[in-house]
């Protein structure tokens, strides 16, 4: 078996937007290095100053160097049919694969990461960066942060790892092993310890800070899916480099996982959860007082920073509720912005206005009736428990809705009765309610009405 030990220098952190400025490939036969290829590359783009400060490579140094297109065939033939070895292998591999593909070469290889291999065969070191690890192992790096120098140091490190190997490398190279696709700093044991149940998972950085929260029907499968493929975009590459641990919380159902995910993202606001897809109500029913002292109801587009009496996804649903309030409480259709005529409203037997629109009805009397309507609307909002599968066979999950708002959730024994719901409520964890959560719950209850246990009269 032959190994291609590779190191590259680049103009930036992700393959899709940056070029390669230098590459070194050392062919290793499992005992020693047999041949070496090293060259500067003209990336045909600017080299940032911070890259030059780190590597010493600037435009003057590469302006007469070959472009990647000119050496793509040579690189392809050097790498073909060999195990691709690098320190933090996914970074180098993503660049080489991306740039070969641009120039017409369909290439893939079995990968071996010397960061992961070092963690496995040489446990206990405080750092596994190439510089720190070589220092700890007395490996001299000549020409640090240049492709040739770093590749030579990686080759020496790889030879030391081969000496320590007791079959681990072959296990890592098996097609059934997914270890090489994992982030370099994430222990395989973290993945193996994940359950296959629904729940929420947390990716954490070196300091233990949560950098991403996700939900899953199957936690292990969903976490593994994050590392599949070789997407070269900057967000993914940066994301992978900063994952050091994964934690999880088991949930009884996917709905519980969705609710917990939404709450945890709002609580932790991880940097990689930039766009939680959420339901935003389009319309709201709002209450305000006009200059004449009359309270008025109005349907308007949903205002994020203005509290609505009720939120709607469809405009027709909003007007259906508003017309019901007008009919039941003799409210003025014009003051509710349903009739938009000059003068008085278009009073009908179904909507008998008492003259508020033309100031015939005293504002206090009209307002008292409207306040009663608003109070009854709030009182009519549902209160119920949603009982479903638990995390174990001897428990059930419980989602508590109180007057149209999500109160909280948790797990209770199958023996628990709802005769004294206050006692059950004490065992639930409260969470802040929002429209997205209520949309999730409402959608689920519409599909599974048999799981609803009304709490009317108990609240």
Judged by helices, strands and strand pairing, the structural class is alpha+beta
C-alpha Rg (nearest Å):
32 Å
CATH class of the largest domain: Alpha Beta
Largest sheet: 5 strands, mixed
CATH homologous superfamily of the largest domain, by name? Ribonuclease H-like superfamily/Ribonuclease H
Q: What is the percentage of strand-forming residues?
A: 15-25%
Low-confidence stretches: none
CATH architect. name of the largest domain = 2-Layer Sandwich
Instruction: Estimate nothing, just give the exact number of structural domains.
Output: 4
Count the strands?
16
Task: Write down the overall mean pLDDT.
Answer: 88
Give the fraction of residues assigned to helices. Answer: 25-40%
Strand order of the largest sheet: 3-2-1-4-5
CATH topology annotation of the largest domain? Nucleotidyltransferase, domain 5
Q: How far do the termini sit from each other?
A: 71 Å
Q: Describe the global form.
A: elongated
What is the number of helices?
A: 16
Protein name: Exonuclease domain-containing protein
Keywords: Exonuclease, Hydrolase, Nuclease
Organism: Olivibacter ginsenosidimutans
GO molecular function: exonuclease activity
